[in-house]
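Blinded run. Sample ID left blank on purpose so nobody reads anything into the name before looking at the predicted structure. Input follows.
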Amino acid sequence: MLNDLKDMALRLRSGMRIALPVDYAGVAMAMTRPMIDSGLRDLRLVCVPTGGLQVDMLIGAGCVAEVETSAVSLGEAGGAPRFNAAVKAGSLRVIDATCPAVHAGLIAAQKGAPFLSIRGLIGSDVLKNRPDWKVIDNPFSDKPDPVTLIPAIHPDVAIFHAPMADRYGNVWIGRRRELATMAYASAESLVTVDRIYEGNLLEDETLAAGVLPALYVAAIAHVPRGTWPYGLWGEYPTDTESLMSYAAAARTQEGFDAWMAEPANWQRKEVTA
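Blinded prediction complete.
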């Protein structure tokens, strides 16, 4: 079950649909360089529900053909420069979504349903750009009652980081249930973790409720501070200085390439609050 990052990246194939979490939920940033180095192309990313640095880097490296998301941003560091440039150049297909719609599509897949209905999209302009979302009248209502049907989202792979896993392949995600939804909806999950728990997480009454069972996990890599420069909930803060450095450099493709080629920019730093 334990792998190194290179071996995990080799499990991926060009053209795959890959689910990636929002920046505060455990982004496996340590997987980014191996993914780029493996020569992946035409990836279809599903941001759950927004994208950030990892998405921007994969776009800048030419790995991505399509992004389904409600936003891509570097947060305090500003806009996502390579994403913005690709949109302006028309080299990236962007599938507009909303946060509830992304979650609805994944939950539908988790439940084995073809779609899930939600109401919040009625009357929005987003519907105009999503012919795959269908508006119908609630069949259980006696009066007009429109709802939007969101088709199930079935990623090939979910990739994320968590605080710990055990040697049986169980992963502790705590309250981050969106990570579980990603894993349930995907064909397989690749997970990086800060530490290895000696024992079985499912046998610990205190921890078991926050565990993603090994059934949904294809491979795990032990990578301390594997979200860097992002932080990890309850563990360590975000390295905002490094995010700012990337954001400034990546405003041009040349600056992005130079930043990515500098080994010092990939050395995970210990950051204190």
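Unblinding after everyone has recorded impressions. DSSP finds eight helices and 13 strands in the chain.
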